[in-house]
Amino acid sequence: MTPIFEAPSAHKYDTIDYYKIDPDFGDQEIFRKLVEEAHRRGMKIMLDMVFNHCGALFPKWQDVLERGSNSGYYDWFMINHWPIEKEIQNTRDGSFYSFAFESNMPKLNTNNEETASYLINICRYWVEQFQVDGLRFDVGNEISHTFLRRVRRELKAENPDLYLLGEIWHDAGEWLRGDEYDGVMNYPLTESINDFWVDSCLTKQEFAYMVNRSYTMYQEQNNQALFNLLDSHDTDRLFTRSGRDEDAFYQQLTILFTMPGSPCIFYGTEIAMEGGHDPDCRRCMPWDKIKKGEYNGHIRTMQQLIGLRKENPCFTSPYFHFPSLYDNKRLIEYEKLTADGEKVVVYLNCSEKTECLDVKDIVFSRKYEEKYLKPGGILIHRK
Q1: Catalytic: which of 14, 22, 48, 138?
Q2: 167 catalytic per annotation
């Protein structure tokens, strides 16, 4: 879940009170019931913890604005010189650090011991009191390494299974050495997949290079815990980015469900929801249309992919390679293997040419008929 704590904005990344559910969403008891019902269904809950910065109405920041360097919270923030302009619209003047130069989101000093203790107690509250299963750290590459090591050390001592996720958009090896995050949002993989469909000149060999590069950045243990995604609240939606082309949409989802890591589906992706860049990507779910069955076909396809990943060990296996058996430069081919010798082969026809693929034991297909994989088609079979 993106932030659910009290904040004045729609996006809720400008926190006022980390201990209070925003009234737009409900209250603590409603959230407790949600967690209990999710756990009863075998589901887990992860909360977005916004510790890189707070909101302008955060009481401790308000105390600093009122009392300046006499405030007991002055060192909780990264203030370079005082006084500051209270009505400042951005922080490019360097007076204090903030998220994206937005003056209404001052940056917290997570190297400060008091600040760190306060934030860790917030984590402990939601994990212990509500049995939250995971924590996602917003702007995870700008939080203190010392703080993150302490988070892991103290919280994992109480709940070894707690999943700690960092929002990092680039090579995150520095945070994945076993003493900070369990995983990160795998945006390098997102971009590798996206680029192939955006640039029709790229070949399957270049696609293989980009995907392999995404996984060779990290150790195998890291790769198994990566948070793989194709769209999020910070990007345009996959269906929109695919040019509203269902073939390209499902081809990319097929990759997501057959690669190592933990596949993540942004709400609405199961029905091919449209949406441009933020905030258009945060549209409301069309519940009325869903209840009428208008998206049943989309939902069934998503359920099929999820089911295959759960049932077939090849889908979750860390082992894959890209044989090039066909001359078609836009026919992606890769094999997934297990240590026990099981194997599935994935074909994605991203060209304008129909390919003859005479295979048996098909586990999933789209636009494959009588040995022919049409443009935009998907074929997965056991080998």
Answers
A1: 138
A2: yes
